[in-house]
Amino acid sequence: MIEYEDFAEPHLQPLSRLAVIEGWDSFRDPETVRRALTAPGCIVMVAVDDATPVGFIQVQSDGGIHAHISNILVLESYRGQGIGRRLVEIAFDKSGANYIDLVSTEGSDDFYRSFVHEQFPGFRLYPQKTDD
User: Fold this and answer.
1) Cα torsion at 55, 112, 21, 106 (round to 10°)?
2) Tens digits of per-residue pLDDT, 33-78?
3) Is pLDDT above 70 for 101?
4) Fewer Cβ neighbours under 10 Å: the N or C end of the chain?
């Protein structure tokens, strides 16, 4: 049976491995991941099956109006079981926000469309590189 837990230190290495398996290179350095998942305003819920993390969600929230899903991942063999939906629901509730914004990746739109939503175009911005 899947249980849902607040992020804790024992989840760090397994979540890093899950993300790297999924191709998220930014999760390779555990110390960077720790800082990201424990940052102020950050809500991280972990889906656990028999003490093994099988998914997680990371949400940033202002605590009253707006929240943003930064990351959500469910191990491929666990997808389609409602785990992602439950992670969103729990994190949304904990956020205290009126709405959550997100940037979806290819192939995930139908999942997000299954929620009450409005769809908007979006952008991901990167720091400008300067020639020194």
Assistant:
1) 180
2) 999 999 999 999 999 999 999 999 999 999 999 999 999 999 999 9
3) yes
4) C
Calpha distance 24→111 (Å, rounded): 20
Half-sphere exposure of 50 (CA within 13 A, CB side): 0
Residue 95 parent element (H or E): helix 83-95
> Which pLDDT does position 132 carry in this prediction?
61
Helix ranges (H only) for the chain are 12-21, 30-37, 83-95, 109-113
For the chain, domain boundaries: 2-109
CATH number for the domain formed by residue range(s) 2-109: 3.40.630.30
Alpha carbon distance 68, 40 (integer Å): 13
